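Working notes for the structural subgroup meeting. M.R. asked for a predicted model of this chain before we commit to crystallization trials. I am recording the input and output together here so anyone reviewing the notebook later can reproduce the run.

Input as submitted:
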Amino acid sequence: MNIKKIRGMNKSITFKILVITLTFFMVFTTCIFVFETLFFEKFYTSWKMNTLEKNALSFEEDYNKTTSDDESSKLIADFQDNNNSRVGILDKNGYLKPFGSNERELSFNERVIGNALNQLLATPGALVDMKRSGKVKSYIFQNGNSNNKTSHMKTIVSVLPDQHNNELIFVVSSLQPVSEAALVMQEIFIYIYIAAFIITILLSIIYSNMISKPLIKLNKTASRMSDFDFTEKYLVNSEDEIGNLGATLNFLSENLDRSLKSLKAANLKLKMDIERERNVEKMRREFVGGISHELKTPISLIEGYAEGIKDDVFEGEDKNYYVDVIIDEAKKMGLLVADMLDLAQLENGNFKLKSQGFYIDKLINVTVKKYYNIFNNKKIDVQLNIAKEVLVFGDTMRIEQVLTNFITNAIRHTEENGSIEILMKKDEEKVYIYVKNSGKSIEKENLTKIWDKFFKIDKSRNRELGGTGLGLAITKNILILHKSDFGVENYEEGVSFYFSLNLVKK
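Returned structure, recorded in token form:
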């Protein structure tokens, strides 16, 4: 599901909330309107009738306690004012007692009481039964002779037989106020309905935004998380369910971010381990291939000459010569194995330097003296341009091994009557040692390859300085451990190898 669809769902949630809220308020308002139209007047009439009957019974008790006409008149006047009604009393002879304040009121009472009597007399025996039972009976009728009830005033008349005085008490109350109120309510309810509709829409929009906006923000944060972007955080502004959901989402985002970073780190380490294993396997194959190649020739020589000596093929000086060849080849095999072990330790990172301060100029002099005989035999001119008392920091034995490899490599590639120069350059922190020999330059594509195992520019070897093909590879790893700047470069007359060491301040 794409982002647009998700946003569409959020908008639909807003719409749904709007519709649900609007529907609820409209149904609620409509129900009130229907109730007011159909049931309000009936409800009010029933309540009015029950109240009037109850008050009539109370009035009868108080009326029977009066002792004079003035007291009765005051009781009737108070009752009429408090209950918004009229009271008429018909004596035992069928005459209406004159309690009205004027002729109009008396005429009204006579008309109402006459209508009530007609209602009673319309039912045979109803008046007799009512007098015998002593119970109040109420009637609703129109004041007038027209059958059009809407043009006349509705009136409630409660008739109560007073058995104590053998009289009939009539309590009359008009329903016209509630009828008029109902008509007015029906007219203004349209405006109320429209106002309720508008208010409902506004409230629905507010409520929907209160819910949908946080949901859209939550969705934005979740969308970023789905793209593995955990920088987006939900701003928690409330402590309700949505706020708790946002806090939980932020917590989930932080945990996923932390777990993903951990997984990436573990994956990177796994790749490095796999690459290291591949390199080890490659080194193993190169070792097996290289050692097989390097040992093939000396083993063949040793085997052939040993079988010849065993079979007495060689005699005298020849026999001694081939014995020397066997011994020489065995030494070379031993040297090759030693170099391979050295290189394996250096490349595996298991080798530890024994660094200390020493004078590099003295080490150069000692190392060069070892090869004076070879220099003389090849008529090589050796020049030393080095400073004295140069104190450096490093592993003395390993740096001597570096010098030996550079010097023997220079001798091997210097022709007779050639020259070798060892010079020194210093700056404030380091000293650079150069071993330069005259002769052929190294091809540009081989300048980096010469540091590889078993790589040889000149495949020939002599008996005195024949290399194993590992010297420069060992030298490279020793200098890397010393954090040295080293390399090889061609110049006009030949080749120059160089390396650096850190100076020790005196």
